[in-house]
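Exercise 3.2. Students should predict the tertiary structure of the chain below and write it as structure tokens, then compare their answer with the key that follows.

Predict this chain's 3D structure.
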Amino acid sequence: MRRTSEVGGLAAATKTIAIHAMLAQIRSLFAHKRLRCTAQRAEVYAALRGTRSHPTAEQLYRLVHAQSPGTSLATVYNTLDVLCEAGLARRLPTAGGVARYDADISDHLHAVTADGQVLDVPADLCGEILQALPEGIRARLETRLGAEVRHLSVQFSDRPVD
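Answer key:
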């Protein structure tokens, strides 16, 4: 029986070390972005980084609230706004009007399923899709629109175009 408790204690210690390392990384990242690192902001960011489901603010609230009941929905919304402004998260508008959020700020593409899930497109397919775009398309868009294009979102739909 002693052996089992030793293994359980080791697992708990390892988890504690991992949590402290993650919090130190978040504190450092926030300091680099000149953001105040409150416990609630760190929890929201950690929860967002810990999921690949591209949650809505409400879904993220439920994740955080389960661990930290004192966190309000307003705090989650405000934190997401701050994270997006600082470039630590990305707001993903959806056809339904409810934004989803992604802590993966690398250049990558998303696919939206019929039931509204937002999935990361595998890197090899991202490359193929981006290579299929005509060369110079960004410059032509900027010329036609009369504005700098900093971000381009491409959506594929199974719905017929009217």
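Discussion points: The domain at 2-145 is CATH 1.10.10.10 (Arc Repressor Mutant, subunit A). The helical segments are 2-32, 39-49, 57-67, 73-85, 123-132, 137-145.
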